[in-house]
TrEMBL record:
The lineage of its organism: Bacteria, Bacillati, Bacillota, Bacilli, Lactobacillales. Keywords: Membrane, Transmembrane, Transmembrane helix. The chain crosses the membrane at residues 16-38, 107-127, 133-159, 171-190, 220-242. This is ABC transporter permease. PANTHER family: INTEGRAL MEMBRANE PROTEIN, SLR1174 PROTEIN-RELATED.
Length: 254
Protein backbone atom coordinates (compact mmCIF):
# COMPACT_ATOMS: atom_id res chain seq x y z
CA UNK A 1 0.00 0.00 0.00
CA UNK A 2 2.80 2.42 0.91
CA UNK A 3 4.64 1.60 -2.31
CA UNK A 4 1.49 2.23 -4.38
CA UNK A 5 0.80 5.57 -2.67
CA UNK A 6 4.35 6.81 -3.17
CA UNK A 7 4.35 5.64 -6.79
CA UNK A 8 1.09 7.45 -7.56
CA UNK A 9 2.42 10.62 -5.93
CA UNK A 10 5.63 10.48 -7.96
CA UNK A 11 3.85 9.80 -11.26
CA UNK A 12 1.92 13.07 -10.94
CA UNK A 13 4.99 15.20 -11.64
CA UNK A 14 4.84 14.94 -15.42
CA UNK A 15 6.02 18.52 -15.97
CA UNK A 16 9.18 17.87 -13.97
CA UNK A 17 9.66 14.62 -15.91
CA UNK A 18 9.57 16.45 -19.26
CA UNK A 19 12.15 18.99 -18.11
CA UNK A 20 14.23 16.11 -16.73
CA UNK A 21 14.13 14.31 -20.09
CA UNK A 22 15.34 17.43 -21.89
CA UNK A 23 18.16 17.98 -19.38
CA UNK A 24 19.27 14.34 -19.45
CA UNK A 25 19.13 14.23 -23.24
CA UNK A 26 21.35 17.29 -23.60
CA UNK A 27 23.79 16.07 -20.95
CA UNK A 28 23.92 12.61 -22.53
CA UNK A 29 24.57 14.12 -25.96
CA UNK A 30 27.46 16.18 -24.56
CA UNK A 31 29.01 13.19 -22.75
CA UNK A 32 28.79 11.00 -25.85
CA UNK A 33 30.41 13.72 -27.95
CA UNK A 34 33.19 14.23 -25.39
CA UNK A 35 34.15 10.57 -25.07
CA UNK A 36 34.01 9.95 -28.80
CA UNK A 37 36.39 12.87 -29.28
CA UNK A 38 38.72 11.36 -26.66
CA UNK A 39 39.04 8.28 -28.83
CA UNK A 40 37.54 4.83 -29.28
CA UNK A 41 40.41 2.65 -28.12
CA UNK A 42 38.62 1.74 -24.88
CA UNK A 43 35.03 1.64 -26.17
CA UNK A 44 33.55 1.73 -29.67
CA UNK A 45 31.31 4.59 -30.79
CA UNK A 46 28.24 2.35 -30.47
CA UNK A 47 29.23 1.28 -26.96
CA UNK A 48 29.86 4.86 -25.84
CA UNK A 49 26.44 6.02 -27.07
CA UNK A 50 24.57 3.04 -25.61
CA UNK A 51 26.39 3.26 -22.26
CA UNK A 52 25.59 6.92 -21.69
CA UNK A 53 21.99 6.69 -22.92
CA UNK A 54 21.41 3.88 -20.43
CA UNK A 55 22.98 5.97 -17.70
CA UNK A 56 20.89 9.03 -18.50
CA UNK A 57 17.65 7.05 -18.82
CA UNK A 58 18.14 5.24 -15.50
CA UNK A 59 19.73 8.06 -13.52
CA UNK A 60 16.67 8.50 -11.30
CA UNK A 61 16.96 4.83 -10.35
CA UNK A 62 20.65 4.42 -9.66
CA UNK A 63 22.12 7.84 -8.86
CA UNK A 64 22.99 8.23 -5.19
CA UNK A 65 21.64 11.78 -5.06
CA UNK A 66 18.13 10.73 -6.19
CA UNK A 67 16.71 10.32 -2.70
CA UNK A 68 13.36 11.01 -1.10
CA UNK A 69 14.25 14.29 0.63
CA UNK A 70 11.42 13.87 3.11
CA UNK A 71 13.36 11.06 4.80
CA UNK A 72 16.22 13.41 5.62
CA UNK A 73 13.84 16.21 6.64
CA UNK A 74 12.02 13.91 9.05
CA UNK A 75 15.27 12.94 10.73
CA UNK A 76 16.57 16.52 10.98
CA UNK A 77 13.26 17.93 12.26
CA UNK A 78 12.53 15.09 14.68
CA UNK A 79 9.36 14.05 12.86
CA UNK A 80 10.89 10.59 12.51
CA UNK A 81 9.36 9.89 15.95
CA UNK A 82 5.93 9.46 14.34
CA UNK A 83 7.22 6.72 12.06
CA UNK A 84 9.06 5.00 14.89
CA UNK A 85 5.98 4.91 17.14
CA UNK A 86 3.93 3.03 14.56
CA UNK A 87 3.95 -0.79 14.71
CA UNK A 88 6.02 -1.27 11.57
CA UNK A 89 9.50 -2.11 10.39
CA UNK A 90 11.11 1.31 9.95
CA UNK A 91 13.93 -0.04 7.78
CA UNK A 92 11.49 -1.68 5.37
CA UNK A 93 9.30 1.44 5.32
CA UNK A 94 12.20 3.68 4.29
CA UNK A 95 13.35 1.07 1.79
CA UNK A 96 9.92 1.01 0.12
CA UNK A 97 9.47 4.79 0.21
CA UNK A 98 12.80 5.45 -1.43
CA UNK A 99 12.20 2.69 -3.97
CA UNK A 100 8.81 4.06 -5.03
CA UNK A 101 10.26 7.58 -5.25
CA UNK A 102 13.06 6.45 -7.57
CA UNK A 103 10.97 4.08 -9.67
CA UNK A 104 8.16 6.57 -10.36
CA UNK A 105 10.66 9.09 -11.72
CA UNK A 106 12.43 6.46 -13.78
CA UNK A 107 9.24 5.23 -15.45
CA UNK A 108 8.34 8.75 -16.55
CA UNK A 109 11.74 9.45 -18.10
CA UNK A 110 13.49 6.27 -19.20
CA UNK A 111 11.19 4.98 -21.94
CA UNK A 112 10.73 8.32 -23.82
CA UNK A 113 14.44 9.10 -23.66
CA UNK A 114 15.53 5.66 -24.94
CA UNK A 115 12.95 5.76 -27.72
CA UNK A 116 14.29 9.10 -28.93
CA UNK A 117 17.89 7.87 -28.65
CA UNK A 118 17.03 4.71 -30.62
CA UNK A 119 16.12 6.78 -33.70
CA UNK A 120 19.10 9.12 -33.60
CA UNK A 121 21.68 8.93 -36.41
CA UNK A 122 25.06 7.30 -35.87
CA UNK A 123 27.22 7.66 -33.82
CA UNK A 124 24.63 8.82 -31.26
CA UNK A 125 22.12 5.99 -31.70
CA UNK A 126 21.14 3.80 -28.77
CA UNK A 127 21.75 0.14 -29.66
CA UNK A 128 20.01 -3.04 -28.59
CA UNK A 129 22.08 -5.80 -26.91
CA UNK A 130 23.77 -8.41 -29.06
CA UNK A 131 21.60 -11.29 -27.80
CA UNK A 132 18.67 -12.15 -25.53
CA UNK A 133 20.96 -13.54 -22.81
CA UNK A 134 22.66 -10.17 -22.38
CA UNK A 135 19.23 -8.50 -22.30
CA UNK A 136 17.92 -10.87 -19.62
CA UNK A 137 21.14 -10.62 -17.59
CA UNK A 138 20.94 -6.84 -17.80
CA UNK A 139 17.50 -6.75 -16.19
CA UNK A 140 18.52 -9.04 -13.34
CA UNK A 141 21.67 -6.98 -12.79
CA UNK A 142 19.63 -3.77 -12.93
CA UNK A 143 17.32 -5.15 -10.23
CA UNK A 144 20.32 -5.89 -8.00
CA UNK A 145 21.69 -2.41 -8.73
CA UNK A 146 18.37 -0.84 -7.78
CA UNK A 147 18.07 -2.79 -4.52
CA UNK A 148 21.69 -2.08 -3.64
CA UNK A 149 21.13 1.63 -4.16
CA UNK A 150 18.13 1.48 -1.82
CA UNK A 151 20.29 -0.27 0.79
CA UNK A 152 22.90 2.48 0.41
CA UNK A 153 20.13 5.05 0.84
CA UNK A 154 19.20 3.54 4.20
CA UNK A 155 22.85 3.64 5.26
CA UNK A 156 22.82 7.36 4.41
CA UNK A 157 19.67 7.93 6.50
CA UNK A 158 21.28 6.07 9.41
CA UNK A 159 24.34 8.31 9.20
CA UNK A 160 22.08 11.38 9.14
CA UNK A 161 20.40 10.08 12.30
CA UNK A 162 23.83 9.96 13.90
CA UNK A 163 25.14 13.32 12.68
CA UNK A 164 21.76 15.17 12.66
CA UNK A 165 22.92 16.92 9.47
CA UNK A 166 21.97 15.68 6.02
CA UNK A 167 24.04 18.09 3.95
CA UNK A 168 27.43 16.72 5.02
CA UNK A 169 26.43 13.08 4.47
CA UNK A 170 24.95 13.82 1.06
CA UNK A 171 27.96 15.83 -0.14
CA UNK A 172 30.32 13.02 0.91
CA UNK A 173 28.31 10.28 -0.81
CA UNK A 174 27.62 12.27 -3.97
CA UNK A 175 31.30 13.23 -4.33
CA UNK A 176 32.46 9.62 -3.99
CA UNK A 177 29.78 7.98 -6.11
CA UNK A 178 29.83 10.49 -8.97
CA UNK A 179 33.50 9.71 -9.49
CA UNK A 180 33.64 6.00 -8.67
CA UNK A 181 30.36 4.48 -9.90
CA UNK A 182 31.21 4.83 -13.59
CA UNK A 183 28.30 7.10 -14.45
CA UNK A 184 30.36 10.07 -15.61
CA UNK A 185 33.58 8.22 -16.46
CA UNK A 186 33.22 4.59 -17.61
CA UNK A 187 35.57 2.17 -15.89
CA UNK A 188 37.25 1.31 -19.19
CA UNK A 189 38.82 4.78 -19.14
CA UNK A 190 40.39 4.20 -15.71
CA UNK A 191 43.86 2.66 -15.26
CA UNK A 192 43.75 -1.15 -15.33
CA UNK A 193 44.73 -1.49 -11.67
CA UNK A 194 41.97 0.89 -10.61
CA UNK A 195 39.45 -0.98 -12.77
CA UNK A 196 40.34 -4.24 -11.06
CA UNK A 197 39.93 -2.75 -7.59
CA UNK A 198 36.67 -0.93 -8.35
CA UNK A 199 35.06 -4.03 -9.87
CA UNK A 200 35.18 -5.67 -6.43
CA UNK A 201 33.30 -2.79 -4.75
CA UNK A 202 29.67 -1.77 -4.41
CA UNK A 203 30.39 1.27 -6.62
CA UNK A 204 30.60 -1.13 -9.55
CA UNK A 205 27.34 -2.86 -8.60
CA UNK A 206 25.03 0.11 -8.93
CA UNK A 207 25.78 1.36 -12.46
CA UNK A 208 28.67 -0.16 -14.35
CA UNK A 209 27.75 -3.81 -13.78
CA UNK A 210 24.35 -3.78 -15.54
CA UNK A 211 25.64 -1.54 -18.34
CA UNK A 212 28.63 -3.78 -19.06
CA UNK A 213 26.38 -6.85 -19.07
CA UNK A 214 24.15 -5.07 -21.61
CA UNK A 215 27.20 -4.38 -23.79
CA UNK A 216 28.44 -7.96 -23.42
CA UNK A 217 31.65 -6.79 -21.79
CA UNK A 218 31.60 -8.95 -18.61
CA UNK A 219 30.53 -12.48 -17.60
CA UNK A 220 26.95 -12.46 -16.35
CA UNK A 221 26.92 -15.05 -13.54
CA UNK A 222 30.02 -13.85 -11.67
CA UNK A 223 28.86 -10.23 -11.94
CA UNK A 224 25.43 -11.08 -10.53
CA UNK A 225 27.09 -13.07 -7.75
CA UNK A 226 29.15 -10.08 -6.59
CA UNK A 227 26.11 -7.80 -6.82
CA UNK A 228 24.08 -10.17 -4.64
CA UNK A 229 26.85 -10.26 -2.04
CA UNK A 230 27.09 -6.48 -1.85
CA UNK A 231 23.32 -6.13 -1.60
CA UNK A 232 23.26 -8.53 1.36
CA UNK A 233 26.17 -6.83 3.11
CA UNK A 234 24.82 -3.29 2.68
CA UNK A 235 21.33 -4.34 3.74
CA UNK A 236 22.71 -5.88 6.92
CA UNK A 237 24.90 -2.83 7.60
CA UNK A 238 22.03 -0.38 7.12
CA UNK A 239 19.65 -2.40 9.28
CA UNK A 240 22.22 -2.64 12.08
CA UNK A 241 23.03 1.09 11.95
CA UNK A 242 19.37 2.12 12.00
CA UNK A 243 18.52 -0.19 14.91
CA UNK A 244 21.53 1.14 16.80
CA UNK A 245 20.45 4.77 16.29
CA UNK A 246 16.82 4.01 17.18
CA UNK A 247 17.98 2.76 20.58
CA UNK A 248 19.46 6.21 21.23
CA UNK A 249 16.44 8.11 19.92
CA UNK A 250 15.01 10.59 22.42
CA UNK A 251 11.70 12.44 22.11
CA UNK A 252 11.56 15.57 24.24
CA UNK A 253 8.39 16.17 26.18
CA UNK A 254 7.23 12.58 26.39
Amino acid sequence: MLFKLRMNAGLQYRGAAISGIVTQFIWGFLLITLFQLLGQSSMTAKEIATYFWLNQALIAMNAVWTMDNQLFQEVESGDVQYSVLRPQNIYLQWFVRNGAYRLSRTLLRAIPLLLIAFFLPEPYRFALPENSLAFFGFFISLLFAFLTQLAIGNVMVALVMKSKQAIGVRILFVSLFDFLDGGNIPYLYFPVVMQTVLKTTFFYSIKSAPFFIYLGRVPILSTLFFQAIWFGLLTGLGYWLIQKELQKLEVYGG
